[in-house]
Amino acid sequence: MQFGFRWINCFLLREFPLDRIIRMWDTYFSEEESFAEFHVYVCASFLLHWEKEIMGKEFPGLLSFLQSLPTQDWKEDDIGILMANAYQYKMMFHKTKHL
Question: pTM for this one?
Answer without folding.
Answer: 0.84
